[in-house]
Structures are given as structure tokens and as C-alpha cells.
Design goal:
The structure is a single chain. This protein is mainly beta and 712 residues long. It has 6 helices and 52 strands. Helix content is 5%, strand content 41%. The strands form 14 sheets. Strands 1, 2, 4, 7, 10, 11, 12, 14, 16, 17, 19 and 20 form a 12-stranded mixed beta sheet that branches.
């Protein structure tokens, strides 16, 4: 049974309590597994109230002489590219009728069970689920296991070439992985990565993917440069299959000039959870937005224009309800400032517009978007590109752009650069320009319940190795702070004055800095990125962190000028990929398409780890031709009780539970609900870890959500 399966049964209203003991009941059965597969299993029963795993677990039996069992017991189905079915039958030990028995399954991802007892697997998801039958006070359960073994030939590769590809070889020494990177952790719900490899063009390729009970091999047509597109059904099934969070083995071989090379191998992990929320970012020379604007991507979908008309220098509240930005552009500063409400349908309604473009540009919004602490600007040209002139940092009301008096802040700090509030609103981090001229990152406590709001406990937490410690972003636990350590606050450079940077993670309690090498493209101090140090080293900027953990990881979105496989890269297929900086000629800026958004996982159990980060993956859906930067990962505006939901992170009350309704697949429909009795499941609301159902398994309460530990 998968983690949380018992809880799902309880949530469905089933009185389930497993008995222990017993072996497979005598006898075995073999029968057709339905379309696309086979199955095997055993049978048996128990009549003394004890469990017999082969014939079902007897629960609430009442009369010890009467028991309910399921046949066949523990069947194993093998799917080979299509749905597989299994007819289950409930039986009473006295031979009585069981036609009134009701059927349930604890994991509708593996498959569904009909009222008739027929189990159906879609055929792409490997795993084990518990099927239960109930008749009166009697309940029986058995496991059903689905294995996936698919061999595919979408490229119509000949049998002879298939044999060459499987045998492999070493004909092309330049054949290597360009993207993705070895040991990448992906979330569920994002498109499959396009596999991109170096060397001579391929006339055919062979892909093999395996994890636990899931195995896929496919033969694909050639491509120049060499790429393989993982079929969507394969990727989705792989992501949902058991074991994907422990390690997915991937191999690719190719034919070029009739000779084979490979396999080249990687191992990935796929976290058990999909990214929540929306990613908002600035794009320049966007074909969608025109000159530029704020774009948005819901993970797994394509980018869309959120606010155009050269809306820049933005920030988004972590609850996803308010956006603030500069509007239009003059010689030195945005012309105006504005704030907008973000509606549940994805539209934006302006709250206020102010004639000073510095007021809301790059500001720190409180999680609910009520207030904004402005990014300070010194006399002359600010080190934060896009601002100039003396403008001290102050707290502003986002409804009317009026100042909120905060003497506890203004008496201590004049210029707070690139400020940010923690996801719970209790901390503020910023570059403390008055100390270190850009090298110092500081943190203060923030209490919004006081009148006026109080800023206290000013501490310097880190000094940059480079010239600047900027763009801080809190982890959801509030204990760690990511930041950009580089030569400038900027991501630009235009050749003669490049802006190099890497990301760092500081522990706020110990002030220990972790270099998070894997995220930055390093291992043991050396760059593992395929084009080398000169082409891809130290090109990571502007981190932002999703407010909730997913699948045991925190998720960081950042700007990078690294190459993207053989697509946006030296010799890649997107024009301009050879120049990572772009050009600036005669006052005209021509950004490089190399400036893109990337996502990386950081272990929830990060404190004390040598490197809790993992290699990054390219955020799919963004425009390939545009320059994209300055992402904000925020939740979607929360949903009221009764609204459909996929995750508790979507619900205002913090609970998303199955209902009595069923979807087209026969599984339960999940909706936002009032706080139910009992404990909280993953991503549901909590005050302490003791509120979480799986606290014994190491679950934590992080930013008010039950959070699973990082998978081992």
C-alpha cells in the first residue's frame, strides 16, 4: 500500500482496520489479465476471525464462524501498452450470496474498481493498491499489483537497426548528455524533458527507462541535433509509478553513419507531488507581450501575458493575491507605480496607481499583499538597475499608496535593497546598503499585529563573497534564506562588463553558508554543465521559492544564462544562443535568449546537509526567443469550501478531501472542505507537527502545512 492509503480509506468513510498474521491461502490461480496484459495470484480465506492474506483480511467479522474473502488474492497484472482488467469476486465462508457487496480501492492512480468488482488499470502506472469488499459488518481486502512493460517503435526503426542500438558501441566520443542533468529531481505535473545529446546527428535512437515495476523501451527516428521526445503517456505513467521518487534509470543510444554509440546513462527522481501555484516573471522582447511585461506560467502549461505594456520590476505576494510593479519606462525610472488584485480566474484589477515609479518597483509585499516595503534607491544611479535618485525605503499601503508609519524601521534602516518578507510574514530580509556597500544581507523580525507595525531584532546574517548579496528569498520553514552572491544586482553585462553570480543558502540560526553546488551546476567544486566553465559558469541569479513544500522538497525558481541543451546554446537551434550576454550597440539593447527560468529542488531536511540542492531543470512553457527573468513563485488565490481542488494548498481552509461524488474514471472528486476532525494529511493545514497524521514518519509542520520529509 502507498503511504497515506489507509488515510484515504478512512476519508472515504470505510471502517477499515487491518488484522495481522496469516500466509497466502492454499491454491493459486492464473487467468487473463485483460487487454494488454496477464495476471497471477493466489486464493484462500479465513473462518476464525484471523487474517489470511491470500484470501482477504477479515475485519469486523462479528460471528467468528463467518468471514468474507476476495478472489483472486494478490493478483499481479502486466500492462504492455493498454488497459488491463481483473474481475474480483467476494465470497462468504458459508457460501451465501455476496452480490450486494460494495467495492473500494485505496489508490485510484493505480486503477479503479467498478460496482461489479472489475478492476481496471489505465495500463501506464505501475504500483500496488488495496481493493476492499464490504458486506454488512464484514470487510475483506487484497492487493492488486500492476507492472508496466512496454516496447514501442514510433520511429519505425528496422529490426537490424534495433539490434545495433541495443548492442551499443563507442563510435562517437562526442555523444553525451546536454540536457537534462544527471540526478535531477522533477516534480509531477510538468511536461517530459526533451532529451538532448551531443555529437553527430542521429539516424535512429533507442531509449530505455526503468524503475521498480515500470519498464519502457522505445526506438525513435533520427534527428539533427540529437533529441528524443519522451511520449507523454510514458512520462505521466512514470511519474505516477511507485519507485520514481527513489530513482529512475534512463539510457539512450544512437546510430550515426550506421554505427552505434551508447548507452549514455542518467538517474533521475520524480517527487510525489505537483508544483502548486503560478510563476510570474518579466519577459523582454516577448512575441506574446510585445516589448515586454509580466508573464505567468502555471506549471505544466504555456506562458501567457498577465500584464503587458512594459510593466516591469514586479513582485508578487506569496499568497498570490496582489502584484506590485513599475509601469512603463522613462530614462531612469519606471514612470508610475501600481498594484493589482489577482483574481481566481487569473485576471488582474488595478488597486492604485502612483506617479512615482520607484515606490512599488522591486518592493517586498507582505504574504497577503496588504503592505509593501519599498526598495531603497540612493542619490544618483542605484546599484539596482532600473532605479535612480534618492528614495529611502518605507512601508506603503497597497490599496492607496499611502505611507504606513514605521519608526521602528526608519530609525534603523534608510535603504533596504531587494527586500522580501518570509512566507509567514514574520521576517524581513534585505541588502543593507549602509553596511558593506552591497555585501551585507540582514534580517529583521516583523510584527504586523502591532500598531504601528514593528520591526525589531536587526541582524546581519551573511557577507557576500562577491560584491553583492541580493535578491533574498526565504525557504518556507523561515529558517533558511537563499540569495544571489555576485558582482552586481543585475543579470546583464553585454560583454565588456558581465554580471556573474551564483546562489547561496544561509542558515539563519548558525549563519552557516551552503554553496548549494548541485543547483549552481557544480559537483565537488567543478562545473558539470556540458559546455564548461567559460560558457556556463557562475550564471545563476534572482532566486524565489515556492511558499509550500511538495513531495519532500522546497522548489527554487531562478534566472540563469546557462545553455539549454542543443536548443538555446552554442550551435543550438534558437538564434542568438551562441551569445549568452546579448548586445548593446548604439544605445539599443538586444537581449540574449539564454536568459531563462530554471527550477531546482532543495531537500526539506536541508540543515546540516553537505549539499541539500539538486540539479535544475528548464521551466517548460516559457518563450524560447525571449529574455525571461525575475520570477516569483506564488500560490494561486485560495478557493472557498466546495470548490474542486487537487491539493490542500489551493484551499482557504487548508483541506482538500475526497467527497461522495465520483469522476469519469470512477474515482472520488476532491473538494475544499471545512477543517475535518482528526489529523491533517500532506499539504493540509497544521499548527504543529503533532497535527499531522504521519508525524511518526517524520512529517513536519512548515508554514502552516503538513510536509513530508525528503525521501531517502
Amino acid at each position: 500500500m502507498r503511504a497515506g492509503s489507509f488515510l484515504l480509506l478512512v476519508a472515504m468513510g470505510l471502517g477499515v482496520a487491518f488484522a495481522c498474521g496469516g500466509d497466502d491461502g492454499g491454491g493459486t490461480a492464473s487467468n487473463s489479465g485483460g487487454a494488454g496484459g496477464t495476471n497471477t495470484g493466489g486464493s484462500g480465506n479465513a473462518s476464525d476471525g484471523s487474517a489470511a492474506t491470500g484470501g482477504g483480511l477479515v475485519i469486523d467479522g462479528g460471528d467468528a464462524s463467518l468471514s468474507l474473502s476476495i478472489e483472486p488474492a494478490n493478483p499481479v497484472l502486466t500492462a504492455t501498452g493498454g488497459p488491463v482488467t481483473q474481475q474480483f469476486t467476494a465470497k462468504l465462508s458459508n457460501g451465501g450470496s455476496t452480490s450486494a457487496a460494495t467495492w473500494e480501492i485505496d489508490d485510484v492512480v493505480v486503477g479503479t474498481v467498478a460496482k461489479s468488482g472489475v478492476f481496471t488499470s489505465p495500463g501506464w502506472v505501475a504500483g500496488t493498491a488495496v481493493v476492499s469488499a464490504k458486506l454488512g459488518n464484514l470487510t475483506a481486502s487484497t492487493n492488486v499489483t500492476v507492472k508496466v512493460q512496454v516496447s514501442d517503435n514510433p520511429g519505425n526503426v528496422t529490426a537490424g537497426d534495433q539490434a545495433l542500438l541495443k548492442a551499443g558501441g563507442s563510435a562517437d566520443s562526442a555523444f553525451k548528455w546536454l540536457y537534462p542533468y544527471d540526478k535531477t529531481v522533477f516534480p509531477r505535473g510538468v511536461p517530459a524533458p526533451t532529451l538532448q545529446l551531443g555529437g553527430a546527428a542521429a539516424s535512429a535512437t533507442y531509449l530505455k527507462i526503468s524503475v521498480k515495476d515500470f519498464s519502457y523501451e522505445g526506438f525513435f527516428a533520427g534527428s539533427a541535433p540529437t533529441r528524443v521526445d519522451v511520449p507523454a503517456a510514458v512520462w505521466k505513467g512514470l511519474a505516477l509509478s511507485e519507485g520514481a521518487d527513489a530513482g529512475v534509470n534512463v539510457e539512450v543510444s544512437k546510430l550515426s553513419g550506421g554505427q552505434a554509440t551508447g548507452p549514455v546513462k542518467q538517474t533521475w527522481k520524480i517527487a510525489k507531488g505537483s508544483l502548486s501555484g503560478i510563476i510570474y516573471y518579466n519577459s523582454y522582447f516577448s512575441k506574446l507581450a510585445g516589448t515586454g511585461g509580466v508573464m505567468r506560467i502555471k506549471p505544466g502549461q504555456n506562458a501567457e501575458v498577465f500584464i503587458g505594456n512594459c510593466t516591469v520590476c514586479h513582485s508578487v505576494s506569496s499568497k498570490g493575491t496582489v502584484i506590485a510593479a513599475g509601469v512603463s519606462w522613462a530614462t531612469d525610472n519606471p514612470v508610475d507605480s501600481a498594484t493589482w488584485d489577482i483574481a481566481a480566474d487569473g485576471s488582474a484589477k488595478q488597486r492604485v496607481k502612483d506617479p512615482d515609479g520607484r515606490k512599488m518597483s522591486f518592493g517586498a509585499l507582505t504574504p497577503d499583499g496588504k503592505w509593501l516595503l519599498s526598495n531603497g534607491s540612493m542619490a544618483g544611479t542605484s546599484p539596482v538597475r532600473g532605479l535612480s535618485g534618492d528614495f529611502p525605503s518605507k512601508l506603503w499601503d497597497t490599496m492607496n499608496a499611502a505611507e504606513v508609519a514605521t519608526p521602528s524601521f526608519t530609525s534603523q534602516i534608510k535603504y533596504a535593497l531587494t527586500p522580501v518578507f518570509s512566507h509567514d510574514g514574520k521576517l524581513l530580509a534585505f541588502n543593507r546598503w549602509e553596511q558593506g556597500a552591497g555585501k551585507t544581507l540582514s534580517v529583521m523580525d516583523f510584527d504586523s499585529s502591532q500598531s504601528p507595525p514593528a520591526f525589531t531584532n536587526l541582524q546581519n546574517v551573511v557577507t557576500a563573497q562577491g560584491a553583492v548579496a541580493g535578491w533574498p528569498s526565504f525557504l518556507p520553514d523561515g529558517k533558511g534564506l537563499l540569495y544571489h552572491d555576485g558582482e552586481k544586482f543585475d543579470t546583464a553585462g553585454f560583454g565588456a562588463t558581465p554580471a556573474f553570480a551564483e546562489l547561496r543558502l544561509v542558515d539563519l540560526s548558525s549563519k552557516t553558508v551552503n554553496s548549494i553546488e548541485a543547483l549552481n551546476g557544480r559537483a565537488g567544486g567543478s562545473l558539470y554543465l556540458p559546455y564548461g566553465e567559460t560558457e556556463e559558469g557562475k550564471l545563476n541569479y534572482e532566486p524565489t521559492v515556492l511558499p509550500v513544500a511538495v513531495g519532500g522538497y522546497y522548489w527554487v525558481v531562478f534566472t540563469s544564462r546557462r545553455a539549454y541543451g542543443n536548443t538555446v546554446s552554442p550551435g543550438g537551434t534558437v538564434a542568438g544562443g551562441d551569445n549568452k550576454w546579448g548586445t548593446y550597440v548604439g544605445g539599443a539593447e538586444n537581449p540574449s535568449p539564454r536568459k531563462k527560468l530554471w527550477v531546482a529542488a532543495i531537500d526539506v531536511s536541508w540543515q546540516g546537509a553537505p549539499d541539500p540542492s539538486h540539479p535544475a531543470f528548464y521551466l517548460s512553457g516559457q518563450e524560447l526567443d525571449a529574455g525571461n527573468m525575475r520570477a516569483f513563485a506564488a500560490l494561486e488565490p485560495c478557493k472557498a469550501d466546495g470548490a474542486d481542488c487537487e491539493s490542500a494548498a489551493e484551499c482557504c481552509n487548508g483541506f482538500c478531501r475526497p467527497t461522495d461524488e465520483t469522476n469519469d474514471a470512477g474515482g472520488p472528486v476532491t473538494k475544499c472542505v471545512p477543517p475535518p476532525p482528526g489529523c491533517s494529511k500532506e499539504e493540509e493545514a497544521c499548527k504543529t507537527a503533532a497535527d499531522c497524521c504521519d508525524v511518526a514518519a517524520g512529517f513536519l509542520c512548515v508554514n502552516g502545512r503538513c510536509t513530508k520529509p525528503t525521501p531517502k
